[in-house]
Write a structure and sequence with these properties.
Blueprint (H helix, E strand, L loop, with lengths): L10 H7 L1 H10 L2 E2 L4 E2 L13 E6 L1 H18 L3 E5 H4 L10 E7 L5 H12 L3 E6 L5 H4 L3 E4 L12 H20 L5 H12 L1 H9 L2 H6 L1 H4 L4 E6 L3 H16 L2 E6 L16 E5 L6 H13 L3 E7 H7 L5 E5 L7 H20 L17
Parallel strand pairs: 3-4, 3-5, 5-6, 6-7, 8-9, 8-10, 10-11, 11-12
Antiparallel strand pairs: 1-2
The protein binds 6-O-phosphono-alpha-D-glucopyranose.
Subcellular location: Cytoplasm
Organism: Sphingomonas cavernae
Keywords: Aminotransferase, Cytoplasm, Glutamine amidotransferase, Repeat, Transferase
Length: 367
């Protein structure tokens, strides 16, 4: 099929805006709305027999895995290990019987991830793969193939493949929870309902595109930018920083909000924008107090939260980005949008090559 940018200036922009459609498309394979159940493709083993999950990936796919670790632990009470693929084999991981090794990759060809998959297979693990390219090496080598239906992703910096990975991983979390007896039929029905709302929530997030474009000038001149989050929003902070680095060449770091006082707070001054990802919920107050520590040192905060969170803590920030209020299971999908758009608009403001950033490759097939 001919792939073009349509009305968009860049593939990355097009792919960001495709997310409601491709996430809906992906969820279709994993939800049975009529039965109010989640569902997985056929596999030759029992999910309920799995005793530990080892998640391995690179780059943005690794951050999807990091979000999944929070979900698998919280919802399924499943022990989870997590590694970047380039470290996995070499640290001699202990892989015991009953382990499921889960690989996440847009391309299905990343050399480190593929080598890690083969290592895990040799060590007797069941192999699950979340992958966007159905004909890829990883897809062929899986015991449990969990496709994302994001369609071809052309922009080097991953966007829609990432949110589709999260959608699949959320469904997998629910399946694991059910298999382990941690999910009642009512809870499962609720989860199906919340996941089904994700595309609409993504649309609501995308509606802030112009606001975010208008605040790009707050970030574009910076030399350093910090992203803070807690819980599953911590990996989202890491992903936000990665997106900004990749396409705008601004040095950015994601930090667990509570860890900021152990180092990065030393960097804070009026020239370091701090992007805080904080949906309202049980961790909100704690993140806000970390945010206030930044403000007390003259730091300029951009708060990404829902209306309630912004009403509670928006004062003293230089800007706020309002997200719809959503269930914690879909918050990472929704909060992906503003960090993608911010990176995109900052890069456009700086005039960098958004779709083909210098020194980066779409798929890294060497170690
Ligand atoms: C490269 C790309 C990233 C991607 C990473 C992992 O670094 O530039 O966007 O996240 O590879 O790729 P994969 O295809 O395994 O998800």
């Amino acid at each position: 099929a001919l792939i073009d940018k349509g009305n968009h200036r860049h593939f990355m922009q097009k792919e960001i805006f495709e997310q409601p459609v491709v996430v809906a498309q992906t969820l279709q394979s994993y939800l049975r709305p009529l039965e109010e159940q989640v569902a997985l493709p056929q596999m030759d083993f029992e999910l309920g027999d799995i005793r530990r999950v080892t998640i391995v990936a690179c780059g943005t796919s690794f951050y999807a895995g990091m979000v999944a670790k929070y979900w698998f632990e919280q919802f399924a009470r499943m022990p989870v290990d997590l590694d970047v693929a380039s470290e996995f084999r070499y640290r001699q991981p202990v892989l015991e019987e009953g382990g499921l090794a889960l690989f996440i990759s847009q391309s299905g060809e990343t050399a480190d991830t593929l080598a890690a998959l083969r290592h895990a297979r040799a060590e007797g693990q069941k192999i699950a793969v979340v992958v966007n390219v159905p004909t890829s090496s990883m897809a062929r080598e899986a015991d449990l193939l969990l496709p994302t239906h994001a369609g071809p992703e052309i922009g080097v910096a991953s966007t829609k493949a990432f949110t589709c990975q999260l959608a699949v991983l959320a469904a997998l979390a629910a399946n694991l929870a059910r298999a382990r007896g941690k999910l009642s039929a009512d809870e499962e029905r609720d989860i199906v309902g919340h996941l089904a709302e994700a595309p609409a929530a993504l649309n609501a997030a995308l509606a802030h595109d112009e606001d975010i474009e208008a605040m790009a000038h707050l970030v574009a001149p910076a030399r350093d930018v910090l992203y803070l989050g807690r819980g599953p929003d911590y990996p989202m902070a890491l992903e936000g920083a990665l997106k900004l680095k990749e396409i705008s060449y601004i040095h950015a770091e994601g930090y667990a909000a509570g860890e900021m006082k152990h180092g990065p707070i030393a960097l804070i001054d009026e020239n370091v924008p701090v992007i805080v990802l904080a949906p309202s919920g049980p961790l909100f107050e704690k993140t806000v107090s970390n945010m206030q520590e930044v403000q007390a040192r003259g730091g300029k905060v951009i708060l990404i939260s829902d209306a309630e969170g912004i009403a509670q803590a928006g004062e003293g920030t230089i800007a706020t980005i309002e997200m719809p209020r959503v269930h914690p299971l879909i918050a990472p999908l929704v909060y992906a949008v503003p960090v993608q758009l911010l990176a995109y608009h900052v890069a456009v403001a700086k005039g960098t090559d958004v779709d083909q950033p210098r020194n980066l490759a779409k798929s890294v097939t060497v170690e």
